[in-house]
Amino acid sequence: MLSRALLISTLAAVVRAAEGEEPESSPGHWSRNDKILIAHAVFGTLAIVLLTPAALLLARIGRSSRWFPGHATLNGLSVVFIIIAFALGVTVVEGEFGQDFHHSLGLALLVLFLVQPLLGLAGHFWARPSPLTSAAPSWGLPRPSPIRILHILLGLTIVGLGYTQVINGLYIEWPNKSEAATETPLAVKVIFWILFALFIVAYVGTWIVQAIRGRGREGRASLSSAASSNNALVGTPKTAGARDMSSANV
C-alpha cells in the first residue's frame, strides 16, 4: 500500500512538472513564488529593521566622532536592499501590483529611500550645523537648517512606515498571498518585536540622556559667562578708583 501511494504521488508530480505546474508549496518545499517572497521579506526586513535603525542610532550617538562614513554606508546598503526587495515583490505580483496596501506602501518607501540620501548629502556638505541637529540637542530655540531637519524627520518617517510595512507583511501578506498560506513562524515575529523594542528604547534613551547633558553644558556655559561678566564689572571700578587716587596724589 505504501509503495502504491508513493508511486501515485510520484506520477502526479511528474504530470504536474510536464504540465508546467509547480508542486504545492510547503515548509521545506517552497514553490518558486514563495521562495521569491521569502527573499523579498529578507531583504526588506534587513533594510528596515537592521540597517536603517542602525544608521539612525549611529547619527544620534556618534556625532562626537567620525560617524558620517558609517552612517552613509548603512544608508547606502539599505537603499540597495530596498531596491532588491521591491524588484522581487513586483516579480511575484506581476500585473496585480498596486492593488493592496502593502504594494502602495512599498512604492512610497522606495521613493523615500531614494530621496533620503540626497537630503543627507546636502545637509552634511552644504547646510549650516545647529544645536538641534547635533548629538546633544539644545533646549533653546536654535534656527536649524531646514535641510537637516527634513532629513531627520524623513528618516524617522521612513522607520515608522517601514515597521508598519514589515508588520503588514508578517501578519497579513505572507498568510494571505503566499502559496503555502501558512502563518509566519512565531520565532520570526518574536525576533522582530525584540529588535523593534530595542531600537525604540535605544533611540529615545540616548536622545534624553544627550539632551540632559547638553542642557548641563549650556548651564555651565551660562554660569561661566555670568561669572566673567561679574568679574569685568567688579574690576572696572577698581581700576578707575586707582587712577583717581593717582591723580589726587599728583
TrEMBL record:
Keywords: Electron transport, Membrane, Signal, Transmembrane, Transmembrane helix, Transport. Its main location: membrane. PROSITE patterns: CYTOCHROME_B561. One of its GO terms (cellular component) is membrane. The chain crosses the membrane at residues 36-59, 71-93, 105-127, 148-171, 191-212. It is found in: Membrane. Residues 1-207 form the Cytochrome b561 domain. Residues 1-17 form the signal peptide. This is Proteophosphoglycan ppg4. It comes from Rhodotorula toruloides.
